[in-house]
From TrEMBL:
Residues 26-76, 877-941, 1224-1279 form the PHD-type domain. Residues 1161-1172 have a biased composition (Basic and acidic residues). It comes from Ignelater luminosus (Cucubano). One of its GO terms (cellular component) is chromatin. It comes from the Eukaryota. The lineage of its organism: Eukaryota, Metazoa, Ecdysozoa, Arthropoda, Hexapoda. Residues 811-831, 1152-1172, 1193-1222, 1283-1314 are annotated as: Disordered. This is [Histone H3]-trimethyl-L-lysine(4) demethylase. Pfam families: JmjC, KDM5_C-hel, PHD, PLU-1, zf-C5HC2. GO terms for molecular function: histone H3K4me/H3K4me2/H3K4me3 demethylase activity; zinc ion binding. The keyword Metal-binding applies. It is found in: Nucleus.
Length: 1314
């Protein structure tokens, strides 16, 4: 027996040799030659030479710990040649007994105890301590890799001499490691050569600490190790999936070893502590293998271990079908490491592909997949070679060459499919992956050596595919068909096809084939019997039914079906027999049940179906005749039961027919009883019909009682009586009508008109006379009369709403402005207030309250949406009932807050007045009449006064029926009166009382001013006449003195203008409402001048909100109330005229002449002359009034020529002239302030319209503008949006606010060049 010696080369020492020199030389320093300073003298552990620490290069500061070598010894050690790292072959040989004695002695002496008492954990701990120790050496021997062909096997074999009978079983066992590698399922069995260690087992005799280092099996195959006897063997394993991580960790731990030997892990000389591997993230698993146990390693799984003591084990490799894929990866891995292969993987695959019939199905499938990859790779490699330029090729039988002659010179791979050679080196070849590394010769010097052509490989692959797939499919089908637990699905022909397929394709003989043949034979016998039976049954059906002969009974039929069910296939003919048996059994069961059932409980359908079923079965059944007799009796009884259960269909003719039929059937107790009852019923029915007809032909005074008596008798007669149906229906309708009338009279409240009308209609449809119908008709007529009167009171002519809609709160859809949307939603609105017949007054009131809440909420939403609408450029808001954009004269509805065109709806009279001042001021002057606007959607009825409605309610109380419109009117009246109480409480607050008082004072002042204005106009007319007629001057003085009019009274800011020209003081009294300012409405003639600021009431935000909410609800009421008008006056007087706009004219700027202002310069001189003449005439006759002069040095705008220059503001004198001149002198501002002064400053718009404006009217003065500034009016600055409101106050607006219905933008000044 051979062994190995573990050497630790780092601990090897160089033995001293004898030197011929003075012995004292070792006590002196070899550098300086002195022997002093002994405490610094350092002795070499290799040659014993002495050196001072300070004489060394570099000098040492202290004596080093451990061994130290001098520079000479280091040089000698370094100069030694490099030796391979690994185990050393021992020189001594042992017998098995000698090795065991040595092993036990070593372990016992080492641990100082008997070998069997040393724990395995203690041995393991000591082993890794020794491996990790640097200073300690332990030498052990290991009898490893002993060939069984040389030394025998631990397993009995068939070639063993004197084989014991008990060992025969083990000699042929599959677990015998001599048999395992070449079993049918192992790929290694197709390698004909005996590969030692792979196909032929190796034996291992171990001792304590004998180690097998980290490694994995050749070609990454499986391995199996069996411990025959001895002490345990400790294993450590790393999964194959973590092999790369394991290798990287080992290389990082000892890079210098792997640099010199890249395939170091394949030399079985490297050991590393598993803890180091696990710390690096590599999983390691351990186990202790005891005697009699197998250990199996999987492909590429690294494993290592050591022996706990003296033992004997045996190991071998094997390769099942799934190894082929891993084997190909291993060959590629070997080529990267330039490691020699044990055998050629491609040669093994091709050898199996050439003999597919010898392969097992599983191996054939795995070989096909591996060869498919091999062929694909070979095609690519040969294509690359062809592209490189190699065109010469020769066939080579690589399997005949020794492995060392067909190994790639570069990667050491054993070539088989192909190789490349060159003429310059004929004895060297490389694989196709390294064709460029062979030599530097051109491609045409190279030759491809190939084993198979690319056409031959696919043919081999196809045969392998057929073999792999065919047997697998066949095997599965046979197993399924013969498995008793799996239902049979194959037919007899398909089962025969499986047997034929196995014979044709020469599948290996097995037990399944025999079983399959027996199953087919049994199936054919059963099919033959069924065909004979079916032929006999077909012939029998053609014979007379009275002369039938059958040979099968039910018991024989059951036994035959049992045999058919046990077959391995499905017979098409089996359905005939099974159907016959099922039908026979079912008929016998049904017939037995029906014959035992009483006649009155039998169903005719059941008997007919059962009898039909039995006659269709080709087996003689004894129950058929009894079932035919039972059917006749059941049919007659069924007919009698039908007419007895439904007396309304039993006519006299039917009874007579049943009597005739029942007397012709066989006697039966139940049949006789039914015949007697039918005879009695016929007599009673005929007698009742005669008496009923006599009563109808000659009615008595007590008709109703007589009819009730007859109907009571008819209830006891179970036949159909035509006269009974007529009388019953009539009496039922009369009683029901009277019951309905009594319920109406007994109710707490009067019925609705619809209920009464329905009752009248029902009474008219009854053929018998009913009292009280005429009274009900009178009640309905009176109700309709009241409804018509109410409609005339509320609804306008051709109104689009009904009376109920007008009296009910509006639905959310009815609040929208768009007419199409309202019309569409009105019919489908679920929120419409409705009154049903089941409602009492409390429910009506509650429903009305809920509708009120929805109306208020909906209106608030509509108001909020409408108030968000703006007139900015780009906005696409729609207004009015026409749903179009802003244009022309528009006014805002006080309720829904939407804007309406004057062309679409009728606006109040104030909209037709040419307003000077804000809207509130003008409304105050008009007494707020014809100033408030409600759109047609909000103001939809005539809105009668409350007194008129109260008279209608009085008439309503006199009616005897309830009308939904009346209920709604009552709720509306209650709502209006409740609202009046709220208004009364609101106006009692101090803030509102003060506002009402102030508004009353303003109204009174306005009335007085209107009267005074009328007088002043008369005087003004006389003054005009006096100015042209000197004879009337004296008369004018008298009128003025008589009327008490003074010059101060007549000269207010609007009616009197004073001039100071050339030092002559003159005055002229004119009317502020001259002919050019009079619009089409007469109100414009009577508007006195009142300060606009006095017309505004100042209310707190809370009061203002309360006022708006109360007024909103008041405007919703379809009732005319004075409080609504009073609240609106307060609200309008408290509005800011500049922010809360209600009237706007978007066409106002277009109505003025574009060149109006530019004509004034040319007409100034003529007008001035006329004024001077008039002033001179009036100077001595009219009371003079001294007017303060305006600033003499007023900045005046001058014209800068007509060639593109700007036209600035100008100072000019106010003058009077004819009506035409006065029109030309009018300011273009919407709300002209009519400034009165000797000299008034004007400014012209530079934005494009060229209109003239008073500076005071646009919020400017002559001191505030410069020559280089441009003035742009509101209309030009907002050319893409609305033009502003009619009551716009420019000086109170901010240019930062966007234009909206409640706000306007002022005109702007722009610097030149900006």
């Amino acid at each position: 027996m051979a062994g190995y010696n573990l050497q630790n080369e780092e601990k090897a020492r160089i033995k001293n040799t004898s030197y011929d020199f003075d012995p004292l030389a070792k006590y002196v320093c070899h550098n300086c030659g002195r022997g002093d300073v002994e405490e610094c003298m350092l002795l070499c552990d290799g040659c014993d030479d002495s050196y001072h620490t300070f004489c060394l290069l570099p000098p040492l500061s202290e004596i080093p710990k451990g061994d130290w070598r001098c520079p000479k010894c280091v040089a000698v050690e370094v100069s030694k040649p490099t030796e391979a790292f690994g185990f050393e072959q021992a020189q001594r040989e042992y017998s098995l007994q000698q090795f065991g004695e040595m092993a036990d002695q070593f372990k016992s002496e080492y641990f100082n105890m008997p070998v069997h008492l040393v724990p395995t954990s203690f041995v393991e701990k000591e082993f890794w301590r020794i491996v990790s120790s640097i200073d300690e050496d332990v030498t052990v021997e290991y009898g490893a890799d002993l060939h069984t062909m040389d030394h025998g096997s631990g397993f009995p074999t068939t070639t063993s001499l004197n084989l014991h009978p008990g060992d025969v079983e083990y000699a042929y066992s599959s677990w015998n490691l001599n048999n395992l590698p070449v079993l049918e399922g192992s790929v290694l069995g197709y390698i004909h050569a005996d590969i030692s260690g792979m196909k032929v087992p190796w034996m291992y005799v171990g001792m304590c600490f004998a180690t097998f280092c980290w490694h994995n099996e050749d070609h990454w195959s499986y391995s199996i190790n069996y411990l025959h006897w001895g002490e345990p063997k400790t294993w450590y394993g790393v999964p194959g999936s973590k092999a790369i991580a394991f290798e990287e960790t080992m290389k990082l731990a000892a890079p210098e070893l792997f640099h010199s030997q890249p395939d170091l892990l394949h030399q079985l000389v490297t050991i590393m502590n598993p803890n180091i591997l696990m710390n690096a993230g590599v999983p390691v698993y351990r186990t202790d293998q005891h005697a009699g146990e197998f250990v199996v390693t999987f492909p590429r799984a690294y494993h290592a271990g050591f022996n706990q003591g003296y033992n004997f084990a045996e190991a071998v490799n094997f390769a099942p079908a799934d190894w082929l894929k891993m084997g190909r990866e291993c060959v590629l891995h070997y080529s990267h490491l330039r490691r020699f292969c044990v055998f050629s993987h491609d040669e093994l695959v091709c050898k199996m592909a050439l003999e597919p019939e010898k392969l097992s199905p599983l191996i054939a499938a795995a070989t096909y997949q591996d060869m498919l990859q091999m062929v694909d790779t070979e095609k690519k490699l040969r294509k690359n070679l062809l592209d490189w330029g190699v065109t010469s090729a020769e066939r080579e039988a690589f399997e005949l060459l020794p492995d060392d002659e067909r190994q790639c010179e570069i990667c050491k791979t054993t070539c088989f499919l192909s190789a490349i050679t060159c003429s310059c080196i004929s004895d060297t070849l490389v694989c196709l992956r390294h064709y460029a590394d062979l030599c530097k010769c051109p491609p045409n010097k190279h030759t491809l050596r190939y084993r198979y052509t690319l056409d031959e490989l696919p043919r081999m692959l196809q045969k392998l595919k057929i073999k792999a797939e065919a047997f697998d499919v066949w095997l599965n089908k046979v197993k399924d068909s013969l498995d008793p637990g799996v239902p049979s699905t194959l037919t007899l022909n398909e089962l025969k096809g499986l047997l034929t397929e196995a014979e044709e394709k020469k599948f290996p003989k097995c037990e399944l084939l025999t079983t399959l043949a027996n199953a087919i034979e049994d199936a054919e016998k059963c099919a033959s019997v069924i065909r004979q039976l079916d032929s006999t049954m077909a012939r029998t059906r053609t014979r007379n039914s009275n002369d039938r002969k059958y040979h099968l009974n039910l018991e024989e039929l059951n036994q035959f079906i049992g045999e058919i069910d046990s077959l391995a296939c499905v017979l098409d003919e089996a359905k005939i027999v099974k159907d016959l048996l099922n039908e026979s059994n079912r008929f016998e069961e049904n017939s037995k049940r029906l014959l035992q059932t009483p006649l009155n409980e039998c169903s005719v359908d059941d008997i007919e179906k059962c009898l039909e079923h039995g006659e269709a079965i080709c087996i003689e059944l004894p129950s058929l005749s009894s079932m035919r007799e039972r059917l006749r009796q059941a049919k007659w009884m069924a007919e009698v039961n039908v007419v007895r259960r439904r007396p309304e269909i039993i006519k006299l003719e039917t009874i007579k027919h049943l009597l005739t039929t029942g007397e012709n059937i066989l006697p039966d107790l139940l049949v006789e009883n039914e015949l007697q009852e039918l005879r009695r019923l016929l007599y009673v029915s005929e007698d009742w019909e005669e008496r009923a007809k006599a009563l109808l032909n000659h009615p008595s005074p007590d008709l109703m009682a007589e009819i009730d008596k007859l109907l009571s008798e008819a209830e006891d007669i179970d036949t159909y009586l035509p006269t009974e149906e007529f009388l019953t229906e009539a009496m039922t309708n009369v009683k029901q009508w009277m019951k309905d009338l009594d319920e109406i009279n007994a109710a707490e409240f009067y019925p609705y008109i619809g209920v009464v009308e329905n009752l009248i209609q029902k009474g008219r449809s009854i053929p018998l006379p009913i009292p009280n119908v005429s009274d009900l008709e009178q009640y309905v007529v009176a109700a309709h009369s009241w409804k018509d009167k109410t409609s005339r009171t509320f609804l306008r002519k051709n109104s689009s709403v009904t009376l109920m809609e007008a009296l009910s709160p509006r639905t959310p859809s009815a609040l929208t402005t768009a007419s199409k949307t309202r019309r569409k939603n009105s019919d489908e609105d679920p929120h419409q207030f409705t009154v049903t017949n089941e409602m009492d007054p409390v429910d009506v009131v509650n429903t009305f309250k809920e509708a009120e809440e929805r109306e208020l909420n909906g209106l608030k939403a509509v108001r909020a949406a409408n108030m968000l609408k703006t007139f900015n450029a780009g906005d696409d808001y729609k207004f009015c009932v026409c749903q179009r954009g802003a244009s022309g004269l528009m006014m805002r509805c006080e309720l829904c807050r939407d804007w309406f065109h004057s062309t679409c709806v009728t606006l109040p009279k104030i909209a037709n007045i040419k307003i000077k001042g804000n809207f509130s001021a003008v409304a105050l002057r008009m007494g707020f009449k014809d100033c408030k606007f409600l759109c047609p959607v909000c103001y939809r009825t005539k809105r009668p006064r409350l007194e008129t409605i109260l008279s209608l309610l009085v008439s309503l109380q006199k009616l005897f029926v309830r009308i939904p419109e009346g209920e709604a009117l009552q709720c509306l009246t209650e709502r209006a009166m409740t609202w009046q109480d709220r208004v009364k409480q609101l106006l009692q607050k101090s803030e509102f009382e003060a506002a009402v008082a102030k508004l009353s004072l303003l109204s009174q002042k306005n009335s007085e001013a209107a009267a005074r204005q009328k007088t002043e106009k008369i005087i003004s007319t006389e003054l005009k006449k006096a100015a042209s007629n000197p004879d009337l001057q004296q008369h004018l003085q008298e009128i003025a003195s008589c009327s008490g009019l003074s010059s101060e009274d007549n000269c207010d800011s609007n009616s009197c203008h004073t001039y100071n020209n050339d030092g002559v003081e003159c005055a002229k009294v004119t009317s502020s409402f001259s002919d050019d300012t009079v619009d089409e409405h007469a109100y414009s003639l009577h508007l006195p001048n009142v300060d606009d600021n006095e017309c505004i009431l100042h209310l707190s935000a809370e009061a203002r909100q309360q006022l708006e909410e109360v007024l909103m609800e008041g405007d919703l009421l379809e009732v005319s109330l004075d409080e609504t008008f009073h609240l609106w006056k307060l609200l309008q007087a408290s509005r800011d005229p500049d922010k809360e706009v209600v009237l706007m004219d978007f066409d106002a700027p277009n109505k003025m002449s574009a060149k109006k202002g530019r004509k004034r310069r040319s007409e100034e001189n003529e007008a001035t002359k006329k004024l001077k003449q008039i002033k001179t005439d009036l100077d001595k006759k009219i009371t003079k009034r001294k007017i303060k002069d305006v600033k003499d040095n007023v900045r005046k705008r001058t014209d800068i020529g007509s060639n593109g220059g700007r036209r600035r503001g100008r100072g000019r004198q106010t003058q009077s002239s004819s009506e035409e001149d006065e029109t030309e002198e009018k300011c273009a501002a919407v709300s002209c302030l009519l400034p009165a002064s000797q000299e008034v400053d004007w400014v012209q718009c530079d934005g494009g319209c060229d209109q003239w404006f008073h500076m005071a009217c646009v919020g400017l003065s002559a001191q505030e503008i410069n020559e280089d500034e441009d003035y742009i009016c509101i209309a030009c600055s907002q050319s893409n949006s609305a033009f502003g409101s009619l009551q716009q106050s420019p000086e109170s607006q901010s240019s930062d606010n966007p234009l909206s219905p409640d706000s306007t933008q002022p005109s702007s000044l722009q610097k030149d060049g900006v």
